[in-house]
């Protein structure tokens, strides 16, 4: 999931440099959502690992 967030971030950066504002904004939003979903799943994974011990 972090991989896809980075891919969308790169797409947003390239689109922003080339002047495609709408595509850059949409890609940045998708990257942000995916990154926060990754963070939530990572924290849940850590809590579940600590709870099992």
From TrEMBL:
InterPro entries: DUF1328 (IPR009760). It holds the Pfam family DUF1328. It is a single-pass membrane protein. It is found in: Cell membrane. The chain crosses the membrane at residues 29-51. Keywords: Cell membrane, Membrane, Transmembrane, Transmembrane helix. Belongs to the UPF0391 family. It comes from Rhizobium tibeticum. NCBIfam families: PRK13682.1-1, PRK13682.1-3, PRK13682.1-4. This is UPF0391 membrane protein RTCCBAU85039_5621. GO terms for cellular component: plasma membrane.
